[in-house]
Amino acid sequence: MNSFMMTLNRHLVEQERLYPQATGAFTSLLSDIALAAKVISHQVNKAGLLDILGLAGSRNVFGEEQQKLDVFANEAMIRSLRFGGTLCAMVSEEDEELIPIPDEFPRGKYVCCFDPLDGSSNIDVNVSIGTIFSIYRRITPEDAPGKLEDILQPGYSQLCAGYVVYGSSTMLVYTTGAGVHGFTLDPTYGSFVLSHPKIKTPSKGKIYSANESNYDDWEPGVQNYIRWAKKSTSANGGGMNSRYIGSLVADFHRNLLKGGVFLYPGDHTNPQGKLRLLYEANPLAFIVEQAGGKATDGRRRILDIPPDNLHQHTPLILGSKDDVETAMEFIQGKRKS
Ligand code: AHG
Ligand code: MN
Ligand code: MN
Q1: Could you tell me the pTM of the whole model?
Q2: Contacts of 329 (CB under 8 A, 6+ apart)
Q3: For ligand 3, a single-atom ion, which residues have Cβ within 5 Å?
Q4: Could you say which ligand is closest to the alpha carbon of residue 64?
């Protein structure tokens, strides 16, 4: 593959050639997502200069106050994906119900679930945030609007998963099941250029990421793991470093490249944790497995969890294979130190 200026679009066309029956609809869908990412990136990078900081004065399905950029990013994703004729339905963290494709627009054979802006608490303080997306092929007859059954598919059925991290640079990382590929936005040309081909995550890292203010509410197995992880190796501990940004995409991306484990477990107050299966856990689980890592709720593989509602929560432990397996031993009580 000629690597000079391997843009996302060229990469998608090269991948498309691997599937003779491809119609180009998938390439068009990913291009629409990339367009939304550029629009959001542009707004994020100007956030301090425009009246888009702060609260929007509205609340989302979880009763969480929406930031103006949450609403902007949601509109950017919906507008960019609605007209392309590639989708039959969408799901967004910011909308309680399934988002249909209006009858006047062409419908396609895919559905997309997305978290338009991840890490909202970090928007106003100039810390990295992101967008997460997950794509399935519809399973109901193609002449009708998309239905819940098209969305509530297990994570292992995903066709594609990806995220955008709006950080020191804007990067789009995606997989279609043929490896994980990272593209950096070159603002000169407005193109995403291949910068991280075939990403593989280290089998073991030195980083654990968790919000330790929840420690007292965690189950004993999680507490035992974190106590072990931070203890020095000389005291038979994990000798790991703590790194926690509070934006899932940013914490995940760092650990994907450097190695390590991210944990957002359940606790006594929220046994299913805070993160959502459809548009946070599943897409990142697909990516991390494709990069050689692992993703679990502490007991089950994330991608095997049967979804029963659009905004279902799940505990999430994902990252380097060996680190996730060690955490699972503690969580399942097979190990105490
Ligand atoms: P979102 O902004 O889409 O609601 O996601 C926020 C999530 C995730 O990005 C992050 O890992 C987690 O919230 C942080 O939660 P705590 O502040 O409870 O640690
Ligand atoms: Mn999120
Ligand atoms: Mn969000």
Answers
A1: 0.95
A2: 335
A3: 93, 115, 117-118
A4: 1
Q: CB atoms < 10 A from the CB of 235, how many?
A: 9
- Return averaged pLDDT per consecutive 10 residues of the chain, 337 residues in all: 78 85 88 97 79 68 76 95 95 97 94 96 91 98 94 98 96 96 94 97 98 97 98 95 98 98 96 98 99 98 98 98 98 95
Q: How many residues are given for the chain?
A: 337
> Which residue minimizes the CA distance to atom 14 of ligand 1?
246
Q: Walk me through the domains of the chain, giving residue ranges and CATH numbers.
A: 8-196 (3.30.540.10), 207-331 (3.40.190.80)
Question: Closest residue (by CA) to atom 17 of ligand 1?
Answer: 246
Ligand 1 probe mutation, 74, 77, 163, 247, most atoms within 8 A of CB: 247
Nearest CA to ligand 1 atom 16: 246
User: Measured in whole angstroms, how far is the alpha carbon of residue 282 from the centre of its chain?
Assistant: 7
Distances (CA, A) of 231 to 225, 226, 234, 238, 279: 10, 9, 8, 6, 34
Distances (CA, A) of 329 to 7, 221, 225, 286: 42, 8, 9, 22
- Asked whether 169 lines ligand 1 (CB < 6 A), one says no
Kindly give the number of the ligand 1 atom that is closest to the alpha carbon of 64. 4
Reading the block at residue 197, the tokens are 């081909």
Residue among 21, 12, 4, 29 nearest 181 (CA): 12
Residues 6 or more apart whose CB falls under 8 angstroms from that of 294 comprise 288, 301, 318, 319, 320, 321, 324, 325
CA 36 remoteness from chain centre: 15
Show Cβ contacts of residue 245 under 8 Å, excluding neighbours closer than 6 positions: 119, 122, 127, 128, 209, 251, 254
User: Could you tell me if the CB of 274 is within 6 A of ligand 1?
Assistant: yes
Task: Residue 287: name the closest of 129, 120, 133, 114 by CA.
Answer: 133
